[in-house]
Design brief:
single chain, alpha/beta, seven-stranded mixed sheet, 14 helices, globular, binds flavin-adenine dinucleotide
Length: about 500
């Protein structure tokens, strides 16, 4: 197997694949002068991208403009966003939609000419490009299909990156683990792109797929990269109330289409919390639901979709309708859906500049793993797919810049030594003390418990991937708690009862 590359991309969601496709459009690649390797821990389609429902935001409709989208993004983010980045991403958004269409993504249309744009919580205009309620799948399928046309890229599936070192000569050494054959090897590269997605598995209930164990943040922090705002975790207000860690997401586009939140008595309650009612930003809706749950007997509230036009349910929300029936035998056109807020999105992550480069030269972070400044203290709905593709494009000039060092093949490194970690215990601690509502005392308890766990854990005799992920979860959880302890005010998704 080839061992040295110009660029290694880790991850096959919208972040990783759009980086690869933009690279494939450069002269260097077309001239055969860019050696690229794509590494993913599952199969190419096993990503969170594949599960995105609502869509991707971009100004297009008559009456909408960049200023409005910029303002909505800043309001949701509590004005701690990086305004220059917000402007750069939002002004680029329409051309990025063109790129997605060019790569084969089909968005829903109202008629032959006009695209059918939806409105979601926090957006003042209809600007969400979607494909029914399976937009992520439409994007993922198109990107994977486009990838098939590239014949000079090395693709390693079922392979996890479990360690990264930076060599004195400015190139990276990766230890990769073959999850099927349970063997490891070394790969070297000049530039490394981490597009490893989110960290949902830190919590006991999340909309994220199992792969979201924070690996990119763990690997980057071990290299000494700056990690920023990890405690800005967005909880989705409407996860289906059911057993298991991965909670099926009931898209907020349903609230945009007229669905109403009701408590156990069937009473609407959002008017008590925000003038924007069901269309208030996610953090406000999540906290309102937590408050309602704490003053009633049921551990969930309801989303009433019986008011939504049946034709709209069938046309725009076929997957939600089907999943509610499959999972809990519920007819959403006749019955209320039981829901609870669940972990959904990491607004913080590895700090990057406007080109997606981290504080370590040559190391890039693209997609949910990165903290770009776009979201500030809270992500506006449908701005995350946008952020991922935007930074994939912004990164190209720096990624293709010539570096003076050439990649060498160094001596083989052994697998890292891991500790025996109980992942479930971390998830319980994080959900109890570092969830939607935090307190100073709760964060101290969480930090002590996890630090003790780390200190006292025994060394694992043999490497296994489950424990690598558990180690990653533990390290990232500790970083998140430390970040929460350093916050001095409540902003956006961050809420500590002891702060104002
Ligand atoms: C249910 C759901 C609905 C959503 N709906 C929307 C929406 O409507 N609009 C919107 O804008 N956003 C939405 N989001 C958020 C959005 O989907 C994600 O933020 C985005 O898809 C993340 O893309 P990504 O490329 O960063 O990572 P992902 O798509 O999660 O891909 C991560 C990749 O990294 C790989 N990986 C991870 N660790 C390693 C490792 N150690 N070694 C090798 N490979 C590794 C994985 O195999 C995978 O290929 C939703 C998220 C969820 C979960």
């Amino acid at each position: 197997m080839k061992k040295s590359f110009d660029i290694v991309i880790v991850g096959s969601g919208i972040g990783g694949l759009s980086t690869l496709l933009y690279l494939s459009e450069t002269h260097l690649f077309k001239q055969g002068k860019l050696d690229i390797c794509l590494i993913v821990k599952g199969s190419l389609n096993e990503t969170n991208t594949n599960w995105a429902q609502g869509g991707i935001a971009a100004v297009y409709a008559i009456g909408d403009d960049f200023e409005k989208h910029i303002s909505d993004t800043l309001v949701a983010g509590g004005f701690v966003n990086n305004k220059e980045i917000v402007e750069k991403v939002i002004c680029a958004a329409p051309s990025l939609i063109d790129d997605l269409i060019q790569w084969g993504t089909q968005f829903d249309k109202k008629n032959l000419q006009e695209f059918d744009l939806a409105k979601e919580g926090g957006h003042s205009e209809s600007r969400i490009w979607h494909k029914e309620d399976q937009t992520g799948k439409a994007i993922q399928d198109a990107l994977v299909t486009s990838l098939g046309a590239l014949n000079n890229v090395t693709i390693l599936e079922q392979t996890s990156v479990v360690n990264v070192t930076k060599h004195a000569d400015n190139f990276f050494g990766l230890i990769v683990y073959d999850n099927k054959n349970k063997s490891h090897s070394n790969i070297f590269c000049g530039k490394l792109v981490l597009a490893t997605g989110g960290l949902g598995m830190l919590y006991d209930k999340s909309t994220n797929q199992q792969l979201s164990t924070g690996d990119g943040i763990y690997l980057a922090s071990q290299l000494g990269a700056t990690i920023e705002n990890l405690s800005f975790i967005q909880f989705h207000p409407t996860g289906l109330y059911e057993n298991g860690q991965i909670s099926f997401l009931i898209s907020e586009a349903l609230r945009g289409a007229g669905a109403i939140l009701r408590n156990e008595h069937g009473d609407a309650f959002m008017h008590k919390y925000d003038d924007r009612l069901e269309l208030a930003p996610r953090d406000i809706v999540s906290r309102a639901i937590v408050a309602e749950i704490s003053s009633q007997n049921n551990p969930f509230v309801y989303l009433d979709t019986t008011q939504v036009n049946i034709a709209s349910l069938n046309t725009h929300f076929p997957t939600i309708k089907e999943e509610c029936m499959l999972r809990i035998g519920l007819h959403i056109e006749k019955e209320f859906i039981p829901i609870i807020p669940v972990q959904h999105y990491s607004c913080g992550g590895i700090k990057v500049d406007e080109f997606g480069e981290t504080t370590i030269a040559g190391l890039f972070a693209i997609g949910e793993v990165a903290c770009t400044g776009l979201h500030g203290a809270n992500r506006l709905a449908s701005n995350s797919l946008l952020e991922a593709i935007a930074f994939a494009k912004f990164a190209i000039p720096k990624l293709t810049q010539k570096s003076d060092t050439s990649v060498k093949i160094e001596k083989e490194e052994e697998l890292p030594i891991l500790k025996q970690i109980d992942k479930k215990f971390i998830q319980q601690i994080m959900s109890k003390y570092a969830g939607i509502i935090k307190s100073k005392e709760g964060l101290i308890v969480a930090f002590d418990q996890l630090s003790k766990m780390k200190e006292n854990a025994s060394v694992l005799p043999n490497f296994n991937i489950e424990n690598f992920e558990a180690n990653s979860i533990l390290e990232v959880a500790i970083l998140l708690i430390q970040d929460a302890q350093n916050k001095t005010t409540n902003k956006g998704v961050f809420y500590n009862i002891d702060l104002v």
